[in-house]
C-alpha cells in the first residue's frame, strides 16, 4: 500500500530528486514549494516553512489528498553566505529560521499523526559543513549542525513509538546553487573530495529512499554522510 510522504522544498534540486525517487518506489508523494510552480506529476502545496500556519496547511492538504503522513523529509533550506564581520543579524537568524526552526515546525506537525499511527520516518537534510565547517557559512553551518542535535534528541523521544529519525548530510552536490559557483571554486572544492566528483541529487535521494524503507527499520539517530569522503573523521 502506498504511504503518504511529504517532502519540503521538493520542486527542484535534491528535494525534487527525493520526491521522484520515493514516488517511483510506489509512495504517494506531496511536495512543498515556496516559489515557482509545483513539479509535474507530483501533488504540490505552496508553503514557507518559516510560517507555522503554512506548514499546518501543507500537512492538512497532503493528508486530505493521500492520508496521514508516514514519511516526512525536511529538505527546505536557504543560504546567505558572507564572512561573519560582514554578516547582518537578519542573515544569521533568517537562515536558522528556515533551515533549523523550519525543520522543527515540519517535524512537530508530522509527529502528530505518526504518534497516532505508531510508525513513521522523519528524515532531516543536513550538510557536510555541519561538522566540517565552511568559511563564509557560519549561519548555514550552525543551522545544519543544529539538525544533528535536534534529530538525535527527537530519535530518543520517538523510538518507543516505532518512529525513526535520521539525518542525511550531503557534500558537494550538482544543483543550480552549486552551478552558480566559479569553475575555480568548484575545482577547489572537488580537490577535497576523495571520490573526485560532485554528488548527483540522485545519490542523495537513494540514501533517503533507503532510510524511508523497511530495510532501515532498525536505524535511528544516525547521521549518514553522502559526501564522497569529503567530511571523513567528522
UniProtKB/TrEMBL annotation:
Give the domain of life: Bacteria
Q: EC class of this enzyme?
A: oxidoreductase
Q: Name one GO molecular function term.
A: 3-oxoacyl-[acyl-carrier-protein] reductase (NADPH) activity
The protein's matches in Pfam families, at most eight in alphabetical order, are given as:
adh_short_C2
* Residue span, Ketoreductase domain: 3-176
Which SMART domains would you find in this protein's record?
PKS_KR
Q: Which PROSITE patterns match?
A: ADH_SHORT (PS00061)
Q: Where are the transmembrane segments?
A: none
Q: Could you provide one GO biological process annotation from this protein's UniProt record? A: monocarboxylic acid metabolic process
Against InterPro entries, the record matches this protein to: KR_dom, NAD(P)-bd_dom_sf, Sc_DH/Rdtase_CS, SDR, SDR_fam
* EC number per UniProt: 1.1.1.100
UniProt KW keywords: Oxidoreductase
**Family assignment?**
Belongs to the short-chain dehydrogenases/reductases (SDR) family.
- Protein name stated in the entry: 3-oxoacyl-[acyl-carrier protein] reductase
Q: What is the lineage of its organism?
A: Bacteria, Bacillati, Actinomycetota, Actinomycetes, Streptosporangiales
